[in-house]
Predict the structure.
Amino acid sequence: METVDCALGPGRRVAVPGPRVLVVGPGPRGDGWAYVTAGCWAATEKDGHGLEFVMTAHVRDQRFVELMAMIASYHCGGHRLDLEHSLSIGEPWVPGSTCEHLLISLPYLHGPDLEHCPVPGGHARILWTLPVTAAEIEFRRRHGHEALERLFDEAEIVPTDPFRASVV
C-alpha cells in the first residue's frame, strides 16, 4: 500500500485538509488496483460518521489518484455525495473509454467488510465510485438505481474494464 498526498491547489485544500489517496495493489481477492480517499471523513464527519470513497482500476496510474482527489474535493467542498448519487467527470475515465460519469454505489467488488470502517471517534462508510456511461446515468434517472444495478449483474460487467460496453 502506498499513501499519496494530493496537490489540490490553494482553493481546494481548505475543503479537504491534508487529503491523501491510498493506493492498494492487486491481492488475493482480485487483480485490480484500489484507490481510496483518506481525509473526507475528517473533513465532513457528523456525530462520528462520514464517508470515504474507493475506485478500482485495471492498472496503477496517477490518473486514478487525481480522480480520487477530485472526488474528495467535490464531496468536501459542499457537494455531499452519498449512495446512489452520480457525477460527471467531464472527460473519459481513461482515453478512449465511454465511461464519463461516476456512480456512487456499495463496494460490491470488495465485499461487505470494506463498507464500514471503524475510525477513532466513529466510523467511515466507504462507498464505491463506479465509472459508468452517460446512457447508464440516463437509464438510472428514468428507472432507478436498482434497475441499473440489475443490468450490470445481468451483463456481468467487468467494472475495472475502461472499454466495457454500456449495458443500455
Remarks:
- The first strand starts at residue 2 and ends at 5.
- The CA atoms of residues 139 and 148 lie 7 Å apart.
- The mean pLDDT is 89.
- The two ends are 36 Å apart (CA to CA).
